[in-house]
Amino acid sequence: MGYRVVDTETVQPAEGRPCEYRGLTEPADLSQLALNYFCAEPGEQAPLAYHYHETQEEAFYVLSGTLHVETPEGDLTVPEGSLFAADPESPHRAYNPEDADDAVELLAVGAPPADDDAVPYDPEDE
To answer: Which of 104, 97, 93, 28 is nearest to 58 (CA)?
Structure first.
């Protein structure tokens, strides 16, 4: 058995991301899933550009604000307290629109964890 408590405020935000990103997988010593915190101000996307994962299921739980997700089937609005889930090979782009009143905070979970599983998606290629 093993247990850990992680003070997420001690996890330094990663550099070079389009919004605040704190990777929680490693500090929590997780091996079967990826866990990340994102905070996107108005006009920022979270966590990546338009993409899909080849093998990873991904879910975003909205802690505060309203998340917007672009998909080939249309745009989705995910309010605070709701969950967005994407199957493998399902393109999506999560963002906070320019005209949003507040930042959007979310917890992202992906399984299995995959550092190099994200594939860029361009809707123009369809």
So the answer is: 93
Given its phi and psi angles, is residue 74 left (phi above 0), alpha (psi -120 to 50 degrees) or beta? Answer: left
Please report which helix (H) or strand (E) contains residue 57, including its range: strand 57-64
Q: Output the six-digit token pair for 87.
A: 């199957």
Six token digits for residue 15: 């550099």
- Residue 110's beta-bridge partner residues? 34, 58
pLDDT digits (tens, 9 = 90+) for 64-103: 999 999 999 999 999 999 999 999 999 999 999 999 999 9
In whole angstroms, give the CA distance from residue 61 to residue 86.
12
Q: Can you read off the two tokens belonging to residue 108?
A: 């992202």
Q: Are strands 93-95 and 66-71 parallel, antiparallel or unpaired?
A: antiparallel
CA pair distance 84, 61, nearest whole angstrom: 7
More confident residue, 125 or 65: 65
CB 72 within 8 A of CB 123: yes
Domains and CATH numbers, the chain: 23-109 (2.60.120.10)
